[in-house]
Amino acid sequence: MSKSKAKASKKASKPTSLPVDIGISKGDRQAIADSLSRLLADSYSLYLKTHNFHWNITGPMFNTLHLMFETQYTEQWQALDDIAERIRALGQRAPGSYREFARLSSIDDNAADIAAGDWRGMVTELVLANEAVCRTAREAFKATDKAADQPTEDLLTQRLQVHEKTAWMLRSLLE
Length: 175
Prior knowledge:
Blueprint (H helix, E strand, L loop, with lengths): L2 H11 L12 H31 L5 H28 L8 H7 L14 H29 L2 H25 L1
Protein name: DNA starvation/stationary phase protection protein
Pfam family, one: Ferritin
Family: Belongs to the Dps family.
């Protein structure tokens, strides 16, 4: 077989991209994916902050918070995949770089400013960051409601339950 016929054969056998047709318009899918991208960025920022504090906690609260933070960042890690995969299921590209997350996130990257022994500062930062994720998730409901996107609404509801409970538990440590 000649080289030109081999190239033509490869082109012919290459699968074509099928358009996404899940009952949600392209514009609505884009709006939902944009909201989820902000949620993914906030969630990733929270994950990094929580993992950082897990590594750097010291003092009398070490064991309690070290284990608590590990439980939290492990759950957050799985959630990142769920959010990104929902963006992909909507036919959009999921953000995945530090630059994109920094641009999209509403969470301050000030974890390095907190001293290792300042457990109250760490807990306070995590309360604020979990609440930021809640606000971002709630904002995303605007796009999902408009499009009747129940799978994304379910994902958002699950994330709200986790982050509201986590914020409450962390806040209780400060009382």
